[in-house]
Transposase (Chondromyces crocatus), 125 residues
Amino acid sequence: MHLTVDALGLPLDFIITEGQRHDIIAAPELIARSAPRCLLADKAYDTNDIRAQLDALGAIAVIPSKVNRKPQIPHDQHLYKERAAVECTFNLLKGARRLATRYEKTVRNYAAIVTLACVLCWLRI
């Protein structure tokens, strides 16, 4: 499950892919759907394509550079700490056992469970 959240940690959009698919495969579609002004992401999203897509949208990329990137691209470390809201959202969603263990056999049914869990996050406000 690939998820975008707002500044409060509330889920906005998600894509469900195979477990072995890397995060950067689904990221361009999620970025295009949500059109963020600022993207907080971990090192896995440090690619030239994602950075170019964010520049085209006029969005700020708060992504730490991978160790092997030459030269290193600086990022706002204080703003990056706010990425904890994303992790907290995943922990909240995975509190639902059905979502964490993926009992559903079809993507359609699993997407329905993820949607219900996201709605419950929004209703907690």
